[in-house]
Amino acid sequence: MVDTFRSSTSLASITGPHDNDNGSPTSTGSNLEAEHEHVFRPIESRALTRVTEHEAYELMVKGFSPNYRGNPDLDRNRSAAIPPESNCSLFITGLAPTLTTHELLAGVRDVGRIYATHINAPEPDRGHNTCAAKVVFFERAAAERFYDHYAPTGFAVRTQPTHIGRVVWNRIRSAELDVGGRKSRVLVISGPPGIVNERALRAYFATKIQYQVDEVVPHQASAGEDRALIEFRFGSYRCQAESARMALAREFKEFGVFCEFGESTLPCPLAHC
Question: Which among 185, 181, 175, 200 has a CA at the least distance from the CA of 251?
Answer without folding.
Answer: 200
